[in-house]
User: Fold this.
Amino acid sequence: MKNVTVIKHPLIQHNLTRLRDERTGPQEFRRVLSEVAALMVYEATRSFNVVPFKVKTPIQTTEGYKLKREVILVPILRAGLGMLDSILQLIPHARVGFIGLKREEKSLQATSYHKSLPENLRDFEVILIDPMLATGGSAVAAINLLMERDATHVRMVNLVAAPEGIRQVREHCGNVPIFTAAVDERLNKKGFIVPGLGDAGDRLFGI
Ligand code: PRP
Assistant:
């Protein structure tokens, strides 16, 4: 699938399996999701543009690099919060925006209940964070909100994606790069990813 990167690093796959395991309780789920998010972000940021500039070491002047654009992390509430802190530790200068979306159980439609974003995102590298890409309804709604703020450099980091969700993002949001640890088989009738890991928000927060 175009512009979908499945990150097969052994540590990521090891941790993903612990998250899939139904015996993993909220405390461990939070810790492992946080660890895996930090590992994933290395790959997800690999193509960030840098600009060269001169830096003076104690010995002599040399060429260094800095990121071309400001970075903003945008977790989709609630479950995206589980990946935020560890990514923020790796990119401490990043800003943080929030998008609150809730998927209605029957219709599977995502409804927006919160948005906190800068007025203009044109010059930002935006990393949209959500452990689950299921029907893709939440991702499409979130990307549309980012586009309304003129975002031009958006990438998504999902722990697990369903083919249906990837197709939905492709159909409605063009070529937004997607980074995931797994593309699972399919969705079940209730809109859960199979085999997936259940409801990430519930497993993170115990409700
Ligand atoms: C879940 C999940 C994603 C979304 C994926 O969130 O965390 O945000 O559903 O589903 P979709 O691709 O079909 O839209 P949910 O709406 O249950 O909210 P929560 O994170 O607060 O639990």
About this structure: Residues 26-44 form the longest helix (19 residues). The two ends are 34 Å apart (CA to CA). The pocket of PRP is lined by residues 76-79, 101-103, 108, 110, 130-139, 165, 191, 199-201 (CB under 6 Å).
